[in-house]
Structure formats: structure tokens, C-alpha cells
Hints:
By secondary structure, this protein is mostly helical. Helices cover about 40% and strands about 5% of the residues. It has one domain (about 5-150).
Amino acid sequence: xxxxxxxNNPLNIRHSADQWQGARKEQTDKSxxxxxxxxxxxxxxxxxxxxxxxxxxxxxxxxxxRNIISRWAPPTENDTDNYIRTVxxxxxxxxxxxxxxxSRATCYERLELLVRAMTTMECGIPYKEVDVEAIRExxxxxxxGKRKVKRVRKQADKPADVMVSMPxxxxxxxFRDWDEYSDW
Length: 184
């Protein structure tokens, strides 16, 4: 079990002045916040992403995968370029795609792919094994009643029904519609 899993903090949010909802009363990890549930860890991640949107919006700067990860995993602590490349390959998102504000949930499905891929990078959990339901529960805790799911594309575990146009270094990455999972 990874540190992020033990802490129920899948995106490894560091201690700060923030008083996180669902934080454990006793914090034994000196660097990272420990949460009661994984959903509370994801709730915190969604709230941080919301604050990033406000930060980038005020600059103005694009709320894109590249800019989000450059702030989340700065080069002083991480191989940021590798982090970005890996997230783009896992999620199938465009690096410069400008997302709307997370709490408005107009792009929830695409941001879920981002959070899922970031979990893989932060915790080392294989992309297909990331607890997607906990990501959704976290979003619902962060922004009650805001999640509206229309259509999702998911990286396929097997040959796909849909081939998406991608940059040359990502050719061959396949996706399939996830419409059949309408129960969430």
C-alpha cells in the first residue's frame, strides 16, 4: 500500500493552514494530510483544482493540463515534463485544452480522467485500478449536486470502438465510449 493510499490522500496534498473536511484528528504524517476516507482525499483534490482555476483565471492563463501539473508538481520537486506526458497518455486529454471551472461541472468527465491519471502518478496505482467511485464521491462532497454526466470517453482495456486523432507520440492510444455505464 502506498503512502497516498495509507493517508487516503491520493493526490498527496501537503499540510497547510487549510482545515480540510474529513481530515483525521490525529495527523501522524509530517508532510501529507491524512483523511478519514479516500473520498475526502479526493474532495480536497477537487477543492485545490477549483482554487487553481481561480488562480489561472485571474492571471489570465489557461486552466490546462500543462499548467495544472506544472503548479501541482513543480520542477523543483518532480520531473514535471514526464508527469505531464504520462498524464496526457493515460487520460487522452490535450495538454493545452482549457477546462472550465471545476465546480460548474461542464467538463466533469474530462477532469475525472485528469484526476485519475494524477492518482496513478502520485500513488503508483495502475490507471485501471484507480477507485473511480471515490473520485466521484469526492467531487460530490466538494460540489454537491453539480455533477452532470453526459458522455465519457475512457482509455480502453482492449481494442476500442473509437480511434481518436492524437499527436504523433500518442498514436495508437485507443478509447471507447463509456455510455453503457449510465448508472453513475
